[in-house]
Each structure stands twice: as C-alpha cells, then as structure tokens.
Amino acid sequence: MNIQLSERLKTVASFLPKGAYFADIGSDHAYLPCYVCSHDQTARAIAGEVNQGPYESAKESIKRFGLEESVSVRLGDGLAILEGEHDVKQTVIAGMGGSLIKQILIEGQSNLKSIERIIAQPNIDERDVRRAFLQLGFQITSELIMEENGHIYEVIVGDKVKNTRTLSDEELLFGRFNF
Ligand SMILES: C[S@@+](CC[C@H](N)C(=O)[O-])C[C@H]1O[C@@H](n2cnc3c(N)ncnc32)[C@H](O)[C@@H]1O
C-alpha cells in the first residue's frame, strides 16, 4: 500500500540512515514510521504518543499498512516510552514548538543514552532546540529550511559527540548552516 507523506516529513525521514531503529515522539498517525519502514525493510521504529486519540490512530495505521513486525506503538509522555530500551539509535520529534521539543529532550535525557542522532522539526522557537542539543551533547550537523503549502519549516539534526562546540547568539537563532 502506498503511504502518502508530506514533503516536510519526507525531509525529516531523509536524515535517518538505512536500517534505522528510531523512535518518533509525538507520532500522531504514525505516518512517518510507517513510511520509513515500508520503504526500508531493515528499518524498525517505535511510535510514541501521549494522547489516547493519536495513539489509537497510530495503531490503526500500523495495522492498515501491515507493519506490525517493524513498527510498534507506545502510549507515554515524551522519551519515557524508551525506558529500558538500549538499541534505539535515532529519535525524531517533529511538528511541535521548539520549547516543547526542548522540554521533552531535557526531561527525558536519561532515556537518550543509546541515541546517536536527534532529528527535530520545530514549528517555532528553533533556538530552544539548538540550546537543548548543546546542553545534551548533540552537535548540530545538518539544518535546512523548507516551504510546503505556504508554510516554512526548519529541520535540525544533532549527532552525539564528546564535546559540543558553543554557538553564537546568531547561530542559536538562525543556525550554523542557514545563513
Ligand atoms: C502536531 S502533531 C505532529 C505529528 C507528527 N509528528 C508530525 O510532525 O506531523 C503533535 C503530536 O505530538 C503529540 N505530543 C504532544 N506532546 C507530547 C509528549 N510530551 N509526548 C508524546 N507525544 C506528544 C500530540 O498528541 C500530537 O499527536
């Protein structure tokens, strides 16, 4: 079955490596994990949702696309759904404000131990995401700005490093790669 995905989420997905094992926090219908795992038979994903309605929608999508083997869904707040997981390597947090993304990352930092890459797509307050990445030891390695249906979106990718480089006020606001 063909899974329709917005260009915004396809762009987010493009930053996942082949064979990814990732969590999509705030997954809503789980379209992103379903799209990725239907295009890459070696990928696996966990869709996380804090709200019952979107959680049920995610379960429905996974069943409809026949992806129960590769995509699981968990009900819980932010990164708490990764408690006890040691193999998940990437996390996506997309379609929310940057302050909420920052809150999810900071409050859930104990569950980021196995995470090598975070792909964030904040709708506003991008600076909060960059601050959280620095605080948590994720160096920004890619960023882009895109437009879809008259809306502008930013995608910010951070990879875990031993020492993060500090960012100037301008870089925090606009990113290192977006000038
Ligand atoms: C606007 S939707 C974005 C859905 C999808 N990620 C996208 O980019 O299209 C935000 C989703 O995040 C969920 N959400 C909000 N706060 C959350 C949290 N703390 N933990 C998990 N999910 C959360 C909401 O229930 C909602 O389904």
TrEMBL record:
Top-level enzyme category: transferase
EC number, UniProt record: 2.1.1.-
MF GO annotations: methyltransferase activity
Organism: Paracerasibacillus soli
GO annotation (BP), single: methylation
Domain of life assignment: Bacteria
Keywords: Methyltransferase, Transferase
The keyword Phosphoprotein belongs to this UniProt entry's keyword annotation: no
Protein name according to UniProt: Class I SAM-dependent methyltransferase
SUPFAM superfamilies associated with the record: S-adenosyl-L-methionine-dependent methyltransferases
Pfam families membership: TrmK
UniProt KW Metal-binding keyword: no
Family matches, as InterPro entries: SAM-dependent_MTases_sf, TrmK
